Amino acid sequence: MDTHTHLEDLSNEIFFEIFDYLHAFDIFTGFASLNKRILSLLQSIRLDVIILNSHYDREINFLSSHLTFHADQVISLKCYDTIRNRSSIISLLFNRHHFVNLQSCIFIFDNPSIELENIIKQIQSLNKLVAFFIIQTDYKRINETDNCNITRTILMNKSSSLRSVKLDYDYDYLDISTYTSIASNLISLE
């Protein structure tokens, strides 16, 4: 018996299983232009976005264009600040998209002059954020004002969901004692 099974013949459950193993860029690259059924499935999945420093500008623009319609589905974001031929990817993403359901956020900074004002404002409004990590490479420095604003914003965040914070950058943390109230729901602070 010679029967052929096409990708489109797979059940929705199998597609959901496949999507669980892929990151947003891979999902959009492989599945976004298949057919209307797949597009409707993509509307109901949770997305993990990973942007490595080896990505190129065209890949970020492709991902960002798809996130225009899917930003509310992003639950985790791991992002290097700079990629091969562009700077400040984190600012670009947060200026274009509002990640209202973001639960896990990891920023890896390579660029000391990043503008963080818009990012800080959005982080304040994220009420589902559970884990927030900022990692600064050893040889670069985030400016002192941004360090202070990030630290204050994260540690005084009143969201009941925030449980884990890692702030890995050079900063004089003595002023933390002047904060009026530090979020009491933190389980891990590094």
From TrEMBL:
<protein>
    <recommendedName>
        <fullName>F-box domain-containing protein</fullName>
    </recommendedName>
</protein>
